[in-house]
Amino acid sequence: MPADSAPIPSPEAKAPPAAFGRGLVLDTWYFVALSRDVAVASLKRHELLGEPVLVGRRRDGQVYAMRDICPHRAAPLSAGRLVQKPGEPEAVECPYHGWRFGTDGVCAAIPSLVDDQPYEADRIRVRSYPVAESQGMVFVYVRSDPRSDAAPDHPPPTFPGVVGGEAKLVEWMDFDSHIDHAVVGLMDPAHGPYVHQQWWWRSEHSMHEKAKAFEPRDLGFAMVRHAPSSNSRAYKILGGAPATEITFRLPGYRWEHIQVGEKQVLALTCLTPVTETRTRITQIFWSDHWVFSLAKPFLRMGVVAFLKQDGGMVNLQNEGLRYDPALIWIDDADKQAKWYQQLKREWQKSRAEGRDFSNPVKPAVLRWKS
């Protein structure tokens, strides 16, 4: 973040950083949908950080987002329709009493008023959210201060490789988990041989020591480009000599960029907190490798299997977490989980203090068995 764009602290941001498994990262961008799933004139309800959010697309192609509650009688605006009355901009019409709200959230009209009943409708506002459409994805920026109209001070993430074309495979699942647990579960290098036991992946009988180099990246860190581990059999179908780089970025993005000669595969995982206790995991794949189309049915089965296995382990973990136990973190297998916690704390502190973010991650070589 450039020095001249340091954030202005808000009352909400001044709270001390939340403990692990509590609190959500604010003043940042969350993935909500693929662009192709936001149709013109559509009104779709999402839940984001415990708030109902309407995401729609105007007829000029512009995407917008607003709180999905009419301030009149609390009907969901997403149950209405996008209309354009003479002399008015396009507006979302509430299905209950026809109140109309511009896509900026400002009330444009209250149909039940008569001409001699003065009422400043434009003083009524529905909370609106900054929206960005990038690389075929829609991101919503959630401010720490819902009253603020300040523009986001940083852009949504951008991803390497073949992103921007049509996604080859998309799967998602909701986990009954705070995003913190979902993130560290996603980046945990040691659970694979026990949770994900497939013949085409790996098992505890194929475990061996690994050493990987890591370095800081924008709002996160990366396992620098390397040859995949010899016990990761799924990579072998790509042929050639694949090289992969795995990156994590706040608030919850992890991507693996694989290169095989001039061909590429990008596997992106987006973690979106639906509520404090539910997280949506969306896995999106792009590739220009010829084998991807042939392997897609098998890859889909593998992705679904992995999600179900991780979801099952989350449910088991929740049995213990409801007693609020102290958790033990070890080096080096849990170092990425520690980095995530440091990144989250530094983000919250930098916002509270109105200063630039300083990445706490230092270059390191981590060693573990899996």
If you had to describe this structure to a student in words, what would you say it looks like?
- With 370 residues, the chain is an alpha+beta fold.
- It has 2 domains: 28-142, Rieske [2Fe-2S] iron-sulphur domain (Rieske Iron-sulfur Protein, 3-layer Sandwich); 169-369, Naphthalene 1,2-dioxygenase Alpha Subunit, Chain A, domain 1.
- 17% of the residues lie in helices and 31% in strands.
- It has 4 helices and 19 strands.
- The chain has helices at residues 179-187, 192-195, 290-321, 335-353, and strands at 28-34, 43-48, 51-57, 63-67, 81-83, 91-93, 100-102, 107-109, 128-129, 131-134, 137-142, 169-175, 209-217, 220-226, 243-249, 253-260, 263-275, 278-287, 364-369.
- The chain has an 8-stranded antiparallel β-sheet, with helices on one face.
- Helix 1 packs across helix 4.
- The chain is globular and about 80 Å long.
Summarize it:
With 370 residues, the protein is of the alpha+beta class. It is built from four helices and 19 strands. The mean pLDDT is 88.
Radius of gyration: 23 Å
CATH C-level class of the largest domain is Alpha Beta
For CATH, the homologous superfamily of the largest domain is named as Naphthalene 1,2-dioxygenase Alpha Subunit, Chain A, domain 1
The total number of structural domains is 2
Spatial strand sequence of the major β-sheet = 12-18-17-16-15-14-13-19
Largest sheet: 8 strands, antiparallel
Q: Please, what is the average pLDDT?
A: 88
Q: How many β-strands, per DSSP? A: 19
Q: Which spans of ≥5 residues are poorly predicted at pLDDT below 50?
A: none
Number of distinct helices = 4
**Based on CA inertia axes, which overall geometry fits?**
globular
Keywords: 2Fe-2S, Iron, Iron-sulfur, Metal-binding, Oxidoreductase
GO molecular function: 2 iron, 2 sulfur cluster binding; metal ion binding; oxidoreductase activity
Domain Rieske: 29-140
Organism: Brevundimonas subvibrioides (strain ATCC 15264 / DSM 4735 / LMG 14903 / NBRC 16000 / CB 81) (Caulobacter subvibrioides)
